[in-house]
Every structure is written in C-alpha cells, then in structure tokens.
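anyone seen this seq b4? input:
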Amino acid sequence: MAYHIAHIMNSSKSSIALTNPATEADSKLVAPGDSYKPKRPVLVNKIDGNPTYSEALTKALNIYTYTNNYCFWDNTNSAVNGVGEQGGTIAFNANAGDLDITVNADGTLTFAKSGAVAAAGS
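predicted toks r here
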C-alpha cells in the first residue's frame, strides 16, 4: 500500500507550493489560511534509504514554505521521511494510507493520518 496526500492546510502567513517532479499535475499553490483537497490524492513518491536534500529534490514531493523547502518521501518501510533545505527532518511512522499535512504558522510541517489528530512534525 502507498501513502497519499489527501489534504493540505496552510496555517502560515505566506503562500506555499506543493511540487512533484514525477507528476506536474500534482503541483499546487495554496494561499495563506486556505486548505487544498486534491481531486485525486497525491501519491508520495517512494525512495529507498535516506537521500540528502540535493538527491531528494529531483525525486521527492516538495512543499515550499516561507521558511524552508521540505522534500519528503515514502521510505518503503512504513514511514514518510524528509529533509529541509535549511535543515530539519521529517519522520512520520504509520501504516500507509491517506495523509493530512498542516503547514504550521512557523512554516514547519505536521503530518497526520487523514481524519486523525496531528501526530508528527519536523
């Protein structure tokens, strides 16, 4: 089973951008205070291991916030991992399925299973 992004909530003061180097149709700009529920949940790309930011940039989903750009991926071992361009990491351990992502006021990310209370962040 795979991870999919079902909802993104932008709680920051700036617009954010979701980009996917594998599928241009998954790219979306989300205004401050808005939420985005894609018509088709966005697949979280699979990458084995823990690539550096530079290695992940061209393969992983990206969320650009006003403080950082986060690359994140399905690590193929029941987790979503990620790394920020300015530092910071993402480690969200959960069975695959639909995910909700919140861009917090400070520009960091919080991941949760869809319909669940926020569970992990960077």
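DSSP finds one helix and twelve strands in the chain. The helical segments are 53-57. kinda curious what u guys think
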